[in-house]
Amino acid sequence: MPELHTPTTDHTPATDHTPPALYTPESALIIVAHPDDIEYSCAGTLALWAQQGTALFYVLCTSGEAGIDDPEIDRAQAVAIREAEQRAAAEVVGAREVVFLREPDGLLQPTLALRKQLVRIIRRFRPEVVITGDPTLIWASPTFLNHPDHRAASIAALEAAWPAAGQRNLYPDLEAEDGLGLHRPRKLYCTGWVQPDANLFVDIATTLSVKATALRAHTSQTGGDPEPLLRRQAAHNATGQGMEYAECFRVTTLVDDARWQRTKGDRTAEQIVRISRPEQSTKAPSVASS
Ligand SMILES: [Zn+2]
């Protein structure tokens, strides 16, 4: 993933800033296209959360095999290399599990089949937060277009997290076969190298070195030390925020605090609106909110 921001050379950290308390979820599921996407985008925040006990689960839609361009390494070998690198990076940050969907790298599409796979995973892990990229990002910088796989993974992730994972009549076979109850995450975090609509800036000064160590695990992708690039990007993200280094997100709250404390996202247990059945009443049924 190449550099996307012009480095800032006049960045001056604030000295009198009191950072807000960091929201730390009990669990987070991160859905991306390729090995190294998490490390470039949000591993600093994830490392902070892991230090506070957040259970982290990674989902890689592809195994990044197209990212290895060596005639001596075939596709299967490339998959094995990049998956091993991703597992090592996850271990650095403290993630508990890494799931590879092994969709074809470079050809990822936000299909209904992918959405269903992600619904199954969301219902299995029942995360408080789902993190993915920004599916609207195409022109990432004057010199770089966002990878189509990134957009595909992001749109599939958002569509799975809301509304599909919490809808009763969408995948009755998942409930029947897997016993996976409905789930609605508390919050969605969209991350990206360019985030003009960010509404959350996380101070990663204490974990930027962890982020760099995790990224170094992707040895097939990093030609040299990636830490200077990460520092420039994080400094750029922090501009005007009273921080030295930041990751930024667009956060959407799907479940309010009171309901989350009551349900932990379990929509199977919470019937939102009861409707009258046709055989029980001649009145037209009201519409259940979803
Ligand atoms: Zn990527």
Give a short summary of the structure:
The protein has helices at 37-41, 43-51, 75-93, 112-125, 148-161, 172-178, 208-216, 227-238, 257-263; strands at 27-32, 55-62, 97-103, 129-132, 139-141, 144-145, 187-191, 200-203, 246-253. With 290 residues, it is α/β, with parallel strands linked by helices. It has one domain: LmbE-like (Rossmann fold).
- Specify the CATH architecture: 3-Layer(aba) Sandwich
* Helix and strand sequence: EHHEHEHEEEHHEEHHEH
Instruction: Characterize the quaternary organization of these chains.
Output: single chain
Strand count, sense and closure of the main sheet?
Answer: 7 strands, mixed
The name of the CATH topology is Rossmann fold
Task: Name every ligand kind in the structure.
Answer: zinc ion
Strand content: 15-25%
CATH uppermost class: Alpha Beta
Total beta strand runs: 9
**What is the end-to-end distance?**
38 Å
Uncertain runs: 1-10
Backbone CA Rg: 20 Å
Strand order of the largest sheet: 3-2-1-4-7-9-8
Query: Residue share in helices?
Result: 25-40%
Number of helices: 9
Going by CATH, what is the homologous superfamily? LmbE-like
> Strand pairing plus helix content: what structural class?
alpha/beta
Mean pLDDT equals 89
